[in-house]
Design goal:
It is built from one helix and three strands. The chain is α+β, with helices and mostly antiparallel strands. The chain has a three-stranded antiparallel sheet with strand order 1-2-3, with no helix packed on it. Strand 1 and strand 2 form a beta hairpin. It is globular, with a radius of gyration of 14 Å.
């Protein structure tokens, strides 16, 4: 997900997982793999999921004590 620029050498992207559409046209909610917090954005690039991402999502789910859906996916709040 693109986070904008500040004219420094700071990273301009965050690793996130899409959660759902927002009510604003063309916008989605995401969960940050760094902080575990929900983020709202209009810009993102779809990438493949590797084992590191799967491990981090599972770690966030355990930390939040997330309940599991029928297919075994965690529900984040």
């Amino acid at each position: 997900m693109y986070t904008g620029t500040n004219n420094k050498l700071d990273t301009r992207t965050l690793p996130v997982i899409a959660l759902n559409l927002s009510y604003e046209h063309g916008c989605h909610y995401f969960i940050s793999l760094y902080s575990g917090k929900r983020i709202h954005s209009y810009e993102w690039k779809e990438l493949s999921i590797d084992e590191e991402v799967v491990d981090r999502v599972e770690e966030i789910a355990v930390n939040e004590e997330a309940t599991e859906m029928k297919r075994g996916y965690p529900i984040f709040t």
